[in-house]
Amino acid sequence: MFDERKRQERIAADQLAAEMETLLSASRMEELNKQLLSAGNQLGARLMVLDHSGKVQADTYSTLNGTRLTIPEVVGILATGKTADYGVHMIEAVSTRKLLHFWQPYHEDAQWISYCTAGLYQKGSLIGVLVLSSPIQDMMERLFVLQNQMVLYFLIAAGIALLLALFFSRVITRPIASLTKSIQRMGHGDLSVRVPEKGSGELRKLSETFNIMSEKLEMLDKSRNQFVSNASHELKTPLATMKILLESIIYQPDMETEMRTEFLTDINKEIDRLNMIIGDLLTLVSMDSKTMRLNRSTFSLAQVVTDTAHRLALVADKNHQELKLSLNDRCELYADCAKLTQVVYNLMENALKYTQEGGTVRVRLVRSGRDAVLTISDNGPGIPKEDQAHIFERFYRVDKARSRETGGTGLGLSIVHQMVLAHGGSVSVESEEGQGSTFTVEIPIHQS
Ligand SMILES: Nc1ncnc2c1ncn2[C@@H]1O[C@H](COP(=O)(O)OP(=O)(O)OP(=O)(O)O)[C@@H](O)[C@H]1O
Ligand SMILES: [Mg+2]
To answer: Which of 119, 135, 151 is the last residue of a domain?
Structure first.
Protein backbone atom coordinates (compact mmCIF):
# COMPACT_ATOMS: atom_id res chain seq x y z
CA MET A 1 0.00 0.00 0.00
CA PHE A 2 2.72 2.33 1.07
CA ASP A 3 5.06 1.46 -1.78
CA GLU A 4 2.34 1.87 -4.40
CA ARG A 5 1.52 5.33 -3.10
CA LYS A 6 5.21 6.24 -3.02
CA ARG A 7 5.65 5.05 -6.59
CA GLN A 8 2.69 7.10 -7.86
CA GLU A 9 3.91 10.24 -6.11
CA ARG A 10 7.37 9.67 -7.51
CA ILE A 11 6.01 9.49 -11.08
CA ALA A 12 3.87 12.61 -10.56
CA ALA A 13 6.75 14.52 -8.97
CA ASP A 14 9.19 13.58 -11.74
CA GLN A 15 6.73 14.56 -14.47
CA LEU A 16 6.02 17.88 -12.80
CA ALA A 17 9.71 18.49 -12.16
CA ALA A 18 10.38 18.28 -15.90
CA GLU A 19 7.76 20.96 -16.58
CA MET A 20 8.88 23.17 -13.73
CA GLU A 21 12.51 23.01 -14.80
CA THR A 22 11.83 24.91 -18.04
CA LEU A 23 9.53 27.42 -16.38
CA LEU A 24 11.92 28.08 -13.49
CA SER A 25 14.98 28.40 -15.69
CA ALA A 26 13.11 30.91 -17.82
CA SER A 27 11.85 32.64 -14.67
CA ARG A 28 8.29 32.44 -15.93
CA MET A 29 6.96 32.53 -12.41
CA GLU A 30 3.34 33.35 -13.08
CA GLU A 31 2.95 30.49 -15.47
CA LEU A 32 4.76 28.28 -13.01
CA ASN A 33 2.36 29.28 -10.24
CA LYS A 34 -0.65 28.59 -12.42
CA GLN A 35 0.55 25.21 -13.51
CA LEU A 36 1.51 24.32 -9.97
CA LEU A 37 -1.97 25.19 -8.69
CA SER A 38 -3.77 23.17 -11.30
CA ALA A 39 -1.45 20.19 -10.79
CA GLY A 40 -1.93 20.52 -7.02
CA ASN A 41 -5.71 20.44 -7.43
CA GLN A 42 -5.47 17.48 -9.71
CA LEU A 43 -3.25 15.51 -7.34
CA GLY A 44 -4.95 16.68 -4.15
CA ALA A 45 -1.54 17.60 -2.83
CA ARG A 46 0.43 20.65 -1.79
CA LEU A 47 3.13 21.60 -4.27
CA MET A 48 6.08 23.89 -3.75
CA VAL A 49 8.95 25.02 -5.87
CA LEU A 50 12.15 26.06 -4.10
CA ASP A 51 15.18 27.80 -5.51
CA HIS A 52 18.73 26.46 -5.17
CA SER A 53 19.08 28.02 -1.70
CA GLY A 54 15.98 26.31 -0.39
CA LYS A 55 13.74 29.36 -0.39
CA VAL A 56 10.12 28.76 -1.35
CA GLN A 57 9.40 30.44 -4.69
CA ALA A 58 5.92 29.07 -5.22
CA ASP A 59 3.48 27.35 -2.84
CA THR A 60 0.03 26.14 -3.77
CA TYR A 61 -1.08 26.97 -0.21
CA SER A 62 0.63 30.37 -0.44
CA THR A 63 1.71 30.28 3.21
CA LEU A 64 5.40 29.51 2.96
CA ASN A 65 6.40 31.85 0.13
CA GLY A 66 9.83 33.33 0.77
CA THR A 67 10.67 31.11 3.73
CA ARG A 68 13.45 28.60 3.79
CA LEU A 69 12.36 24.97 3.96
CA THR A 70 14.75 22.80 5.94
CA ILE A 71 13.11 19.40 5.80
CA PRO A 72 15.63 16.58 5.30
CA GLU A 73 14.22 15.64 1.90
CA VAL A 74 15.06 19.15 0.60
CA VAL A 75 18.37 19.42 2.39
CA GLY A 76 19.29 16.01 0.97
CA ILE A 77 18.96 17.29 -2.57
CA LEU A 78 20.54 20.71 -2.02
CA ALA A 79 23.48 19.55 0.06
CA THR A 80 24.28 16.00 -0.92
CA GLY A 81 23.52 15.97 -4.63
CA LYS A 82 20.67 13.49 -4.54
CA THR A 83 18.23 13.90 -7.41
CA ALA A 84 15.10 12.78 -5.57
CA ASP A 85 13.97 11.88 -2.08
CA TYR A 86 10.97 10.69 -0.13
CA GLY A 87 10.01 10.89 3.51
CA VAL A 88 7.12 10.61 5.89
CA HIS A 89 6.63 13.14 8.66
CA MET A 90 4.43 13.43 11.67
CA ILE A 91 3.28 16.87 12.53
CA GLU A 92 3.24 16.58 16.28
CA ALA A 93 -0.04 17.32 18.00
CA VAL A 94 -0.55 17.50 21.72
CA SER A 95 -2.14 14.25 22.73
CA THR A 96 -3.76 13.53 26.05
CA ARG A 97 -4.07 9.86 25.34
CA LYS A 98 -0.43 9.20 24.75
CA LEU A 99 -0.03 7.07 27.83
CA LEU A 100 -2.92 4.84 27.01
CA HIS A 101 -1.25 3.80 23.81
CA PHE A 102 2.11 3.06 25.23
CA TRP A 103 2.77 0.20 22.85
CA GLN A 104 1.98 2.32 19.86
CA PRO A 105 4.63 4.81 18.78
CA TYR A 106 2.06 6.89 16.85
CA HIS A 107 -1.01 8.48 18.23
CA GLU A 108 -4.27 9.25 16.60
CA ASP A 109 -4.15 13.03 17.03
CA ALA A 110 -0.97 13.35 15.01
CA GLN A 111 -1.11 14.48 11.41
CA TRP A 112 0.87 12.52 8.88
CA ILE A 113 2.20 13.86 5.61
CA SER A 114 4.62 12.62 3.02
CA TYR A 115 7.24 14.67 1.20
CA CYS A 116 8.28 13.65 -2.26
CA THR A 117 11.06 15.86 -3.63
CA ALA A 118 12.78 16.11 -6.98
CA GLY A 119 15.72 18.25 -8.04
CA LEU A 120 15.24 20.84 -10.82
CA TYR A 121 18.20 21.15 -13.19
CA GLN A 122 19.30 23.45 -15.94
CA LYS A 123 22.05 22.06 -18.11
CA GLY A 124 23.15 19.73 -15.38
CA SER A 125 23.30 22.17 -12.50
CA LEU A 126 20.78 22.37 -9.72
CA ILE A 127 18.47 25.35 -9.85
CA GLY A 128 15.76 24.35 -7.47
CA VAL A 129 13.66 21.68 -5.81
CA LEU A 130 10.09 20.56 -6.34
CA VAL A 131 8.25 19.46 -3.22
CA LEU A 132 5.10 17.34 -3.45
CA SER A 133 3.50 17.04 -0.07
CA SER A 134 0.35 15.03 0.45
CA PRO A 135 -1.55 14.06 3.60
CA ILE A 136 -1.36 10.34 4.29
CA GLN A 137 -3.54 10.40 7.37
CA ASP A 138 -6.03 7.84 6.06
CA MET A 139 -3.28 5.40 5.24
CA MET A 140 -1.56 5.81 8.55
CA GLU A 141 -4.83 5.38 10.39
CA ARG A 142 -5.43 2.15 8.59
CA LEU A 143 -1.95 1.09 9.56
CA PHE A 144 -2.65 1.92 13.21
CA VAL A 145 -5.88 -0.03 13.18
CA LEU A 146 -4.06 -2.93 11.60
CA GLN A 147 -1.31 -2.66 14.16
CA ASN A 148 -3.77 -2.55 17.05
CA GLN A 149 -5.60 -5.51 15.64
CA MET A 150 -2.36 -7.43 15.31
CA VAL A 151 -1.41 -6.69 18.90
CA LEU A 152 -4.86 -7.78 20.02
CA TYR A 153 -4.77 -10.98 17.96
CA PHE A 154 -1.32 -11.74 19.23
CA LEU A 155 -2.44 -11.33 22.83
CA ILE A 156 -5.49 -13.54 22.25
CA ALA A 157 -3.40 -16.21 20.51
CA ALA A 158 -0.77 -16.08 23.24
CA GLY A 159 -3.51 -16.37 25.88
CA ILE A 160 -5.07 -19.38 24.14
CA ALA A 161 -1.66 -21.01 23.72
CA LEU A 162 -0.93 -20.48 27.40
CA LEU A 163 -4.28 -21.95 28.43
CA LEU A 164 -3.79 -24.93 26.12
CA ALA A 165 -0.28 -25.48 27.44
CA LEU A 166 -1.56 -25.35 31.01
CA PHE A 167 -4.42 -27.70 30.18
CA PHE A 168 -2.23 -30.26 28.43
CA SER A 169 0.48 -30.11 31.03
CA ARG A 170 -2.19 -30.82 33.67
CA VAL A 171 -3.57 -33.68 31.59
CA ILE A 172 -0.11 -35.17 31.15
CA THR A 173 1.22 -34.61 34.63
CA ARG A 174 -1.87 -35.62 36.61
CA PRO A 175 -1.40 -39.40 36.12
CA ILE A 176 2.31 -39.04 36.80
CA ALA A 177 1.57 -37.13 39.99
CA SER A 178 -0.89 -39.79 41.11
CA LEU A 179 1.65 -42.49 40.27
CA THR A 180 4.30 -40.67 42.29
CA LYS A 181 1.91 -40.45 45.22
CA SER A 182 1.17 -44.15 44.99
CA ILE A 183 4.86 -45.02 44.87
CA GLN A 184 5.42 -42.86 47.94
CA ARG A 185 2.62 -44.66 49.76
CA MET A 186 4.13 -47.95 48.69
CA GLY A 187 7.49 -46.76 50.00
CA HIS A 188 5.81 -46.21 53.35
CA GLY A 189 4.71 -49.83 53.39
CA ASP A 190 1.18 -49.70 51.97
CA LEU A 191 1.29 -52.38 49.28
CA SER A 192 -2.45 -52.29 48.58
CA VAL A 193 -2.21 -49.14 46.45
CA ARG A 194 -3.34 -49.25 42.83
CA VAL A 195 -3.53 -46.42 40.30
CA PRO A 196 -6.44 -45.93 37.90
CA GLU A 197 -5.57 -47.26 34.44
CA LYS A 198 -6.83 -44.26 32.50
CA GLY A 199 -5.75 -42.55 29.30
CA SER A 200 -3.93 -44.18 26.47
CA GLY A 201 -0.43 -45.00 25.29
CA GLU A 202 2.64 -45.01 27.43
CA LEU A 203 1.04 -43.60 30.57
CA ARG A 204 -1.63 -46.28 30.58
CA LYS A 205 1.05 -48.93 30.13
CA LEU A 206 3.01 -47.41 32.99
CA SER A 207 -0.05 -47.52 35.26
CA GLU A 208 -0.78 -51.12 34.30
CA THR A 209 2.81 -52.15 34.91
CA PHE A 210 2.78 -50.39 38.23
CA ASN A 211 -0.41 -52.18 39.26
CA ILE A 212 0.97 -55.56 38.24
CA MET A 213 4.14 -54.85 40.17
CA SER A 214 2.33 -53.74 43.32
CA GLU A 215 0.01 -56.75 43.11
CA LYS A 216 3.02 -59.08 42.94
CA LEU A 217 4.71 -57.27 45.80
CA GLU A 218 1.57 -57.52 47.89
CA MET A 219 1.28 -61.23 47.16
CA LEU A 220 4.93 -61.73 48.00
CA ASP A 221 4.51 -59.83 51.22
CA LYS A 222 1.44 -61.86 52.18
CA SER A 223 3.07 -65.18 51.39
CA ARG A 224 6.14 -64.23 53.35
CA ASN A 225 4.05 -63.26 56.36
CA GLN A 226 2.16 -66.50 56.06
CA PHE A 227 5.38 -68.43 55.76
CA VAL A 228 6.75 -66.88 58.93
CA SER A 229 3.55 -67.49 60.86
CA ASN A 230 3.30 -71.07 59.58
CA ALA A 231 6.92 -71.74 60.41
CA SER A 232 6.52 -70.37 63.92
CA HIS A 233 3.40 -72.43 64.39
CA GLU A 234 5.12 -75.60 63.21
CA LEU A 235 8.03 -74.97 65.56
CA LYS A 236 5.78 -74.12 68.49
CA THR A 237 3.84 -77.38 68.38
CA PRO A 238 6.74 -79.75 69.19
CA LEU A 239 8.04 -77.24 71.75
CA ALA A 240 4.68 -77.18 73.54
CA THR A 241 4.54 -80.99 73.58
CA MET A 242 8.06 -81.17 74.95
CA LYS A 243 7.24 -78.61 77.65
CA ILE A 244 4.25 -80.62 78.86
CA LEU A 245 6.27 -83.82 78.94
CA LEU A 246 9.18 -82.20 80.74
CA GLU A 247 6.93 -80.52 83.30
CA SER A 248 5.30 -83.87 84.06
CA ILE A 249 8.73 -85.36 84.73
CA ILE A 250 9.78 -82.37 86.87
CA TYR A 251 6.64 -82.21 88.99
CA GLN A 252 6.33 -85.97 89.48
CA PRO A 253 9.67 -87.01 90.96
CA ASP A 254 8.21 -90.34 92.00
CA MET A 255 7.15 -91.21 88.42
CA GLU A 256 7.62 -94.79 87.39
CA THR A 257 10.82 -95.44 85.48
CA GLU A 258 8.92 -96.97 82.59
CA MET A 259 6.71 -93.96 82.16
CA ARG A 260 9.66 -91.59 82.51
CA THR A 261 11.49 -93.47 79.76
CA GLU A 262 8.40 -93.24 77.57
CA PHE A 263 8.15 -89.47 78.13
CA LEU A 264 11.84 -89.01 77.39
CA THR A 265 11.49 -91.07 74.23
CA ASP A 266 8.60 -88.78 73.17
CA ILE A 267 10.72 -85.74 73.88
CA ASN A 268 13.50 -87.24 71.80
CA LYS A 269 11.03 -87.77 68.93
CA GLU A 270 9.88 -84.17 69.14
CA ILE A 271 13.47 -83.02 68.98
CA ASP A 272 13.94 -85.14 65.87
CA ARG A 273 10.84 -83.56 64.40
CA LEU A 274 12.10 -80.06 65.21
CA ASN A 275 15.40 -80.94 63.61
CA MET A 276 13.64 -82.19 60.52
CA ILE A 277 11.51 -79.07 60.16
CA ILE A 278 14.48 -76.79 60.62
CA GLY A 279 16.44 -78.84 58.11
CA ASP A 280 13.61 -78.54 55.60
CA LEU A 281 13.30 -74.83 56.20
CA LEU A 282 17.00 -74.33 55.69
CA THR A 283 16.83 -76.32 52.46
CA LEU A 284 13.97 -74.16 51.22
CA VAL A 285 15.71 -70.92 52.15
CA SER A 286 18.92 -71.94 50.43
CA MET A 287 16.90 -72.88 47.33
CA ASP A 288 15.21 -69.49 47.44
CA SER A 289 18.33 -67.44 47.24
CA LYS A 290 19.49 -66.75 43.72
CA THR A 291 23.02 -67.73 44.69
CA MET A 292 21.94 -71.39 44.94
CA ARG A 293 24.17 -73.45 42.69
CA LEU A 294 23.59 -76.95 41.42
CA ASN A 295 26.34 -79.38 42.20
CA ARG A 296 26.15 -81.23 38.88
CA SER A 297 27.55 -84.62 38.07
CA THR A 298 26.60 -87.44 35.74
CA PHE A 299 24.45 -90.17 37.29
CA SER A 300 21.59 -92.47 36.42
CA LEU A 301 18.15 -91.42 37.59
CA ALA A 302 17.01 -95.06 37.36
CA GLN A 303 19.71 -95.93 39.90
CA VAL A 304 18.48 -93.17 42.21
CA VAL A 305 14.92 -94.57 42.02
CA THR A 306 16.14 -98.11 42.79
CA ASP A 307 18.18 -96.92 45.78
CA THR A 308 15.29 -94.89 47.15
CA ALA A 309 12.96 -97.87 46.77
CA HIS A 310 15.44 -99.90 48.87
CA ARG A 311 15.42 -97.24 51.57
CA LEU A 312 11.62 -97.22 51.65
CA ALA A 313 11.14 -100.97 51.34
CA LEU A 314 10.81 -101.34 55.11
CA VAL A 315 8.02 -98.78 55.28
CA ALA A 316 6.19 -100.47 52.40
CA ASP A 317 6.58 -103.89 54.02
CA LYS A 318 5.26 -102.60 57.31
CA ASN A 319 2.10 -101.32 55.61
CA HIS A 320 1.85 -104.37 53.34
CA GLN A 321 2.11 -102.04 50.38
CA GLU A 322 3.43 -103.03 47.01
CA LEU A 323 6.14 -100.87 45.43
CA LYS A 324 6.35 -101.54 41.67
CA LEU A 325 9.18 -100.09 39.64
CA SER A 326 9.18 -99.91 35.85
CA LEU A 327 12.38 -98.28 34.65
CA ASN A 328 12.53 -98.16 30.85
CA ASP A 329 15.64 -96.10 30.56
CA ARG A 330 18.69 -95.49 32.69
CA CYS A 331 18.21 -91.78 32.15
CA GLU A 332 21.76 -90.59 32.53
CA LEU A 333 21.50 -87.03 33.81
CA TYR A 334 24.02 -84.29 34.31
CA ALA A 335 22.39 -82.77 37.36
CA ASP A 336 22.53 -82.35 41.12
CA CYS A 337 22.28 -85.93 42.40
CA ALA A 338 21.57 -85.10 46.06
CA LYS A 339 18.73 -82.73 45.17
CA LEU A 340 17.07 -85.12 42.72
CA THR A 341 17.41 -87.95 45.26
CA GLN A 342 15.48 -85.75 47.67
CA VAL A 343 12.80 -85.17 44.99
CA VAL A 344 12.35 -88.90 44.38
CA TYR A 345 12.37 -89.66 48.10
CA ASN A 346 9.77 -87.00 48.99
CA LEU A 347 7.38 -88.15 46.28
CA MET A 348 7.73 -91.85 46.99
CA GLU A 349 7.48 -91.28 50.73
CA ASN A 350 4.24 -89.30 50.24
CA ALA A 351 2.77 -92.01 48.05
CA LEU A 352 3.48 -94.68 50.69
CA LYS A 353 2.53 -92.43 53.60
CA TYR A 354 -0.90 -91.39 52.28
CA THR A 355 -1.89 -94.73 50.76
CA GLN A 356 -3.85 -97.12 52.93
CA GLU A 357 -2.49 -100.50 54.00
CA GLY A 358 -2.28 -102.96 51.17
CA GLY A 359 -2.12 -100.24 48.52
CA THR A 360 0.09 -100.16 45.48
CA VAL A 361 2.62 -97.52 44.46
CA ARG A 362 3.94 -97.55 40.89
CA VAL A 363 7.06 -95.71 39.81
CA ARG A 364 7.74 -95.35 36.11
CA LEU A 365 10.75 -93.78 34.46
CA VAL A 366 10.86 -93.14 30.72
CA ARG A 367 12.74 -90.94 28.40
CA SER A 368 10.67 -88.59 26.27
CA GLY A 369 12.64 -86.49 23.84
CA ARG A 370 15.10 -84.41 25.79
CA ASP A 371 13.34 -85.06 29.11
CA ALA A 372 13.46 -87.78 31.73
CA VAL A 373 9.85 -88.35 32.83
CA LEU A 374 9.23 -89.83 36.26
CA THR A 375 5.68 -90.73 37.32
CA ILE A 376 4.74 -91.87 40.81
CA SER A 377 1.17 -93.10 41.14
CA ASP A 378 -0.70 -94.62 44.03
CA ASN A 379 -4.22 -95.90 44.63
CA GLY A 380 -4.58 -93.91 47.82
CA PRO A 381 -7.23 -91.37 48.87
CA GLY A 382 -6.42 -88.84 46.12
CA ILE A 383 -6.29 -85.08 46.49
CA PRO A 384 -9.41 -82.88 46.16
CA LYS A 385 -9.40 -80.60 43.09
CA GLU A 386 -9.42 -77.38 45.16
CA ASP A 387 -6.31 -78.51 47.07
CA GLN A 388 -4.31 -79.59 44.03
CA ALA A 389 -3.35 -76.01 43.21
CA HIS A 390 -1.94 -75.49 46.70
CA ILE A 391 -0.11 -78.66 47.64
CA PHE A 392 3.21 -77.27 46.32
CA GLU A 393 2.95 -74.31 48.72
CA ARG A 394 4.93 -74.32 51.91
CA PHE A 395 3.19 -75.89 54.92
CA TYR A 396 0.11 -76.77 52.88
CA ARG A 397 -1.56 -79.98 54.01
CA VAL A 398 -4.82 -81.36 52.68
CA ASP A 399 -6.01 -83.06 55.81
CA LYS A 400 -4.34 -81.14 58.60
CA ALA A 401 -5.12 -83.59 61.38
CA ARG A 402 -4.20 -86.73 59.47
CA SER A 403 -0.93 -85.31 58.12
CA ARG A 404 0.16 -84.15 61.55
CA GLU A 405 -0.47 -87.67 62.77
CA THR A 406 1.78 -89.05 60.07
CA GLY A 407 4.45 -86.53 60.99
CA GLY A 408 4.29 -84.27 57.92
CA THR A 409 4.90 -80.52 57.99
CA GLY A 410 3.74 -79.74 54.47
CA LEU A 411 7.19 -78.78 53.24
CA GLY A 412 8.03 -81.90 51.24
CA LEU A 413 6.28 -80.99 48.00
CA SER A 414 7.41 -77.35 48.05
CA ILE A 415 10.99 -78.63 48.30
CA VAL A 416 10.28 -80.94 45.34
CA HIS A 417 8.86 -78.02 43.38
CA GLN A 418 11.83 -75.75 44.07
CA MET A 419 14.41 -78.38 43.21
CA VAL A 420 12.72 -79.40 39.97
CA LEU A 421 12.43 -75.73 38.96
CA ALA A 422 16.11 -75.22 39.72
CA HIS A 423 16.84 -77.96 37.19
CA GLY A 424 14.65 -76.28 34.58
CA GLY A 425 12.03 -79.01 34.84
CA SER A 426 8.41 -79.18 35.93
CA VAL A 427 6.24 -81.11 38.36
CA SER A 428 2.48 -81.63 38.22
CA VAL A 429 -0.23 -83.67 39.88
CA GLU A 430 -3.26 -85.52 38.56
CA SER A 431 -5.67 -86.92 41.07
CA GLU A 432 -9.25 -88.08 41.55
CA GLU A 433 -10.62 -88.27 45.04
CA GLY A 434 -10.77 -91.91 46.15
CA GLN A 435 -8.94 -93.07 43.01
CA GLY A 436 -5.36 -92.22 43.87
CA SER A 437 -2.83 -89.65 42.74
CA THR A 438 -0.16 -89.41 40.06
CA PHE A 439 2.77 -87.05 40.34
CA THR A 440 4.76 -86.38 37.15
CA VAL A 441 8.25 -84.90 37.14
CA GLU A 442 10.01 -83.84 33.94
CA ILE A 443 13.72 -83.10 34.06
CA PRO A 444 15.71 -82.02 31.01
CA ILE A 445 18.61 -84.35 30.27
CA HIS A 446 21.71 -82.18 30.11
CA GLN A 447 24.80 -83.73 28.60
CA SER A 448 27.95 -82.87 30.45
N1 LIG B 1 0.30 -89.26 47.20
C2 LIG B 1 -0.54 -88.49 47.89
N3 LIG B 1 -1.81 -88.87 48.12
C4 LIG B 1 -2.66 -88.10 48.81
N5 LIG B 1 -2.34 -86.91 49.33
C6 LIG B 1 -1.08 -86.47 49.16
C7 LIG B 1 -0.12 -87.23 48.43
N8 LIG B 1 1.03 -86.50 48.40
C9 LIG B 1 0.79 -85.37 49.09
N10 LIG B 1 -0.47 -85.33 49.54
C11 LIG B 1 -1.09 -84.23 50.28
O12 LIG B 1 -0.35 -83.06 50.04
C13 LIG B 1 0.07 -82.47 51.28
C14 LIG B 1 1.43 -81.86 51.09
O15 LIG B 1 2.42 -82.84 50.95
P16 LIG B 1 3.89 -82.54 51.42
O17 LIG B 1 4.74 -83.68 51.06
O18 LIG B 1 4.26 -81.22 50.94
O19 LIG B 1 3.73 -82.41 52.98
P20 LIG B 1 3.67 -83.55 54.08
O21 LIG B 1 3.84 -84.87 53.46
O22 LIG B 1 2.42 -83.31 54.86
O23 LIG B 1 4.89 -83.19 55.00
P24 LIG B 1 6.44 -83.45 54.74
O25 LIG B 1 6.55 -84.05 53.37
O26 LIG B 1 7.04 -82.14 54.85
O27 LIG B 1 6.87 -84.37 55.81
C28 LIG B 1 0.07 -83.59 52.25
O29 LIG B 1 -0.18 -83.11 53.54
C30 LIG B 1 -1.06 -84.48 51.77
O31 LIG B 1 -2.28 -84.01 52.31
MG1 LIG C 1 5.55 -85.29 52.25
So the answer is: 135
